[in-house]
Amino acid sequence: MLYTLNDLKSLAIHASDGDIGLTKDFYFDDKHWVIRYLVVETGSWLSSKKILLSPISIKEFNQQQKTLTVTISREQVKNSPDIDSEKPVSRQHEVDHMEYYGYQHYWGNTGIWGSEPSPNMMSPGYYSVAPKPDNIDNSEMSADVDAALSRDDDHHLRSSEAVTDYHLDAIDGELGHLQGMLIDTDTWAIRYLIINTSNWWLGHLVLVAPKWIKEVSWPTSKIYVDMTQQQAKDAPTFDPSVPFSLEHEQNLQTHYGRNDK
């Protein structure tokens, strides 16, 4: 199911030994357009510190109760590697984070979660149900980490809050500004950007899939998309108060003559 970022903010995180805190922001990978980490503000039990939570640790999402149940404990969080949420997340920090929690590295494969289709399949507990070969070459794992660190310049995790209000240009003019995102909570992929067209078409929201983006100029906060203003105007509009259905998605992709799911 798809949810907006607003749906996923202020979720209470239930750990195995108590509550951790509330979701405040999301870091996404600007190459694969997938949420890599949820930024969680802990309560008074940890001096309201901000920590990173990987979707790998998520066991259950309850939209009605606004909760996420995770497989990690408060004690693990308390001793986890420090992160300054106001600064970019480096690959070295990701290596430390993943190794601390015993997660596989997601990089080095073509899929958005390594060789797995979803993050929960990377969790240590998953392998008790579907065991993996235990003849893993540690030297190969070490080489994989070294290679990832050497590619750090190409690695970019971006805050969803920081990119909100980026302006979008269609082929023939302005399209609007980025108001939000639609997230698939099975894979935590960003399926659509929610675009507010109020600067030229008042009161309408349209959806743009990341695969329809031609270029992103991060220094100028601008996104260029492969569509015309008229195509956007004729497309099914998005209403955040109505659950996003499969029929809506099929109509949207039929309109643009694409199938990017």
**Major β-sheet annotation:** 7 strands, mixed
- Number of DSSP strands? 14
Count of helix runs: 7
Name given to the CATH homologous superfamily of the largest domain: Photosynthetic Reaction Center, subunit H, domain 2
How much of the residues is beta strand, in percent?
25-35%
Rg of Cα set? 19 Å
What CATH architecture of the largest domain would you give?
A: Alpha-Beta Complex
Q: What overall form do the CA principal axes indicate?
A: elongated
- Can you give the mean pLDDT? 86
- Poorly predicted spans: 127-136, 138-143, 145-153
Number of domains: 2
Query: In which range does the helix fraction lie?
Result: 10-25%
Structural class of the secondary elements? Answer: alpha+beta
Q: Helices and strands, in N-to-C order?
A: EHEEEEEEHHHEHEEEEEEHH
The CATH class of the largest domain is identified as Alpha Beta
Query: Which fold name is given in CATH as the topology of the largest domain?
Result: Photosynthetic Reaction Center, Chain H, domain 2
* N→C terminal distance: 13 Å
